[in-house]
Fold LysR family transcriptional regulator.
Amino acid sequence: MKRAVTRLANLDLNLLVILRELIRERNVTRAAERVGVTQPAASAALSRLRRHFGDELLVRGKGTYLLSPLATQLAEQVEVVCAAAERLFAAAEVFDPKGSRREFTLLVADYTIAVLGEHLGRLVDERAPGVGLHLRLVREAMATHIDENIRLMDGMISPPVGRFRTPDMRSAELFRDRWVCVVSGDNGLLGTDRPSLDDLARLSWVAPYHPDQGSTVAPIPRQLTIFGIRPNVAVRVESYQAVPHLVAGTDRIALLQERLARQVADRLGLKVLECPGNPEPIVEMLWWHANFDDDPGHVWLRDLLQEAARSLPAIA
């Protein structure tokens, strides 16, 4: 333990910030501007980082820099560590949103941003103009290890999943939604405006977060398993917002959250149809680690998220 503490004390933790910006920008000059140092200082920091890791980190390509495999691996870690450090040093007995420069990090799906983002962004702008939001798109690997990752960020917005229910996890409901089917307005293979389970089984699908095999953790594969359907998946995509664009003008079908479907249906010429079977309700919840229970800034954030959720229009 003593050796580990000594190693940490000997590290220049400013290099973490430089490393984060170098990985984000893939450009020494822009990274220097973001950190507020000179270009030679950023170059010197990159040299120190290369010596420390024994790796080039930024590799010159055709007219630009590319991340080395190690830098790609470090990208996720440095974001999490920097966010945790910023939170640590922003901690205080009181929280003044008007004067705070704190940045809050939330792990969310792009669906959540589409539905809640405008309301949340407006409230933050009005109440805390200096406060930053870092909305990170959820990935399966991060969600799988959420019990570890949740300590290093302010929270995650997600439907309830069994593995999230641990003694150190807290949660609060934000809003509800429901599953609907979306098809193109000129779909030639669906002869009715009320698809049956047989229709769902025979049509081609656009499926977000559809696994290579077997898993029913993601919401839509779970619903299809409940329906007893093994879908003919024509397009897999790691995004909810992309789904309606990949259905439009085709004979494909998809399940989608109604709030998102209604936002884009008219613009893309889609029909929003009742979902057959008995789909589970969608319950979007905020999850956070118990360590943040009494953090005044975090309490403010939780209240603000609840207020943003209450401003959402009701669904049918």
Remarks:
- The first strand starts at residue 58 and ends at 60.
- The domain at 2-75 is CATH 1.10.10.10 (Arc Repressor Mutant, subunit A).
- The two ends are 58 Å apart (CA to CA).
- The CA atoms of residues 261 and 306 lie 22 Å apart.
